[in-house]
Amino acid sequence: MTNNDIADAMDNKINQMAKGITIVADSNIASLNDFFNHATLGQLSGQTVKIIPVAGRDIDAKLLSEVQPDILLIRSVTQVNEALLAENHSVQFVGSATIGTDHVDQDYLATRDITFANAAGCSKHSVAQYVLTAILTLRPNYWQQPVTLGIIGLGNIGSTLAQYANDLGWQVLGYDPLLPSSTINNASLEQVLSQSNAVSLHVPLTSEKVDSDAKGSDYPTRHLINAETLAMMPADNILINSARGPVVNENDLKNDIAHTGRQVVLDVFEHEPTVADSLLAKLTIATPHIAGYTLEGKLRGTQIIYDALCEKLAIIPAQSMSNLLPLNLFLWSELKANPDRLSKFYDIMQDDALLRSKISGENPDKQVNGADFDGLRRDYHLRREWQS
Ligand SMILES: NC(=O)C1=CN([C@@H]2O[C@H](COP(=O)(O)OP(=O)(O)OC[C@H]3O[C@@H](n4cnc5c(N)ncnc54)[C@H](O)[C@@H]3O)[C@@H](O)[C@H]2O)C=CC1
Ligand SMILES: O=C(O)C(=O)[C@H](O)COP(=O)(O)O
After folding, report:
1. Contacts of 317 (CB under 8 A, 6+ apart)
2. Looking at residues 209-228, what average pLDDT do you find?
3. pTM here?
């Protein structure tokens, strides 16, 4: 690019901004049009707003090169990196309405001076409630008896789950090498795996550090659960993964279940969005990456990136999820007093049955295919977050 080209590109950009804001957004973002419209952005910034909703997996380099949007709003299924943005010269803000950020190359965005925001903590109660529901559906006696819950990763979700566990009178054994020790961060990985009745994973997906690569972690989580760590778990210890699929080595998991008969609950899968029947058939509960999919969890995700965009545009937010939420009658105190109402609060076995119904008998590989997995997520039923 010559200096003249750069000057032309900048002129084009200034003209475009004068015309308005163009947003390409994952159509699965909850209440997209309620948060991102002329009244909530345009009037305040003095620009028109054009929003282009696209299925998350269809947001690609070609589209972003043709449309040249100013804003990109995504969820977890869009990989944001140099390959996606190399031919785009316009994006100034990327917002992901998710907690996880493993799909975003934040270092690359920084080299392009693109602001990034994610929705930290947005569905922490929803995911914690999913985990409790799974455990208490499989072991209803745990409502009344002493239980040791192992939690790996004690950030927003893990620590919220620990609060519910303490509220039920359970003991928590937690492991998080990146946080100081505490009443819940109180054990080694081996102790958590070997001494709990159920172990739940709440870590981000991270890889090993390679040479001086700053992206890796000193405590990588990819395949953290493998043949060696599974061997530390007694056979009657439940394993729950609602973090990211590749945290668990699925081949090792299949072997472990074949030998131990362990009860395993997966919401996320190593080869998502496809799920092989050879794995699904061995799982006690399987759901299509919906642990955080309550109305509240999804709306909070949208709210957080909307607020971050308003900050970027230097405008005061004009929309709030409280305007969009219907009355919520699901009270944690009521459920605790009436454990038999659990399936009315959240019927996790219905989600399990829907996923299993997508196994195609005609397909020799027998698997849930990606379109069906994504369809279940797109058309997910209304689920509410329990209130404290
Ligand atoms: N299934 C679903 O619907 C959802 C899944 N998630 C997943 O859950 C993950 C956790 O979410 P949050 O708790 O909100 O994240 P967070 O960032 O608040 O906490 C993650 C914790 O994991 C710890 N950690 C990192 N490496 C570790 C290791 N090797 N061993 C033990 N601990 C380690 C960190 O120190 C941190 O405290 C997200 O990164 C996302 O991938 C999040 C929301 C919904
Ligand atoms: O927040 C996260 O991290 C999640 O895993 C999401 O709840 C999953 O949602 P999608 O972005 O995949 O819809």
Report:
1. 40, 306, 307, 310
2. 89
3. 0.95
